[in-house]
Each structure stands twice: as C-alpha cells, then as structure tokens.
Design brief:
With 91 residues, this protein is mainly α. The protein is built from three helices and no strands.
Length: 91
C-alpha cells in the first residue's frame, strides 16, 4: 500500500492508474540502472560507462526503494509522460 505520496496526489499529475504504473515502473528501472552503475563506478576495478544513465532528480527522498523514489519524482512534477514519444515496436 502506498502511503506517500498519496495516490490522489499522483493522479493529479497522471491521467490514469495504468499510466501511473507504467511511468513509475519505467522510471524505477532507470533509477536501478543508475544506482547500480554508480556503485560499480565507485567500488569496481573496471571503468563503468554512465552514458545514457538518468540521474536522480530530487535532492532528498523519503523512500529507499526505486519505485518509491520514482513516485516521489512524479509527485514533484519532475517525471511526466511525453505525449509525443512513441516506442519502437518490433514485429
């Protein structure tokens, strides 16, 4: 159950629960990749390319988990759905 940010506040930023779930899921994957690459860059012995990584957008998060961080970014208006973006679909 999501306590913060509230679903009502999130739905003011996104038009449907489905869109909210898809947006949060995508952003959480980006956060996971960024944090994993950052950790490898700091602790690994091989250079790590951070190209294409999308950094964290807020200075402070209440949640430690990537989905919670993604929802906080959505609530803050830092992450939105691009209505003109289309996914490349493979046949």
């Amino acid at each position: 159950m999501i306590l913060y940010p509230s679903v009502d506040e999130l739905l003011k930023r996104v038009d449907s629960r489905y869109s909210l779930i898809m947006l949060a899921s995508k952003r959480a994957h980006e956060i996971d990749k960024y944090e994993a690459d950052q950790w490898r860059a700091d602790h690994g012995d091989k250079p790590v390319s951070m190209e294409g990584d999308k950094p964290l957008l807020l200075d402070h998060y209440q949640s430690a988990k990537s989905v919670g961080k993604a929802l906080e970014e959505i609530e803050a208006g830092k992450v939105t759905i691009d209505p003109y973006h289309t996914e490349d679909k493979q046949d």
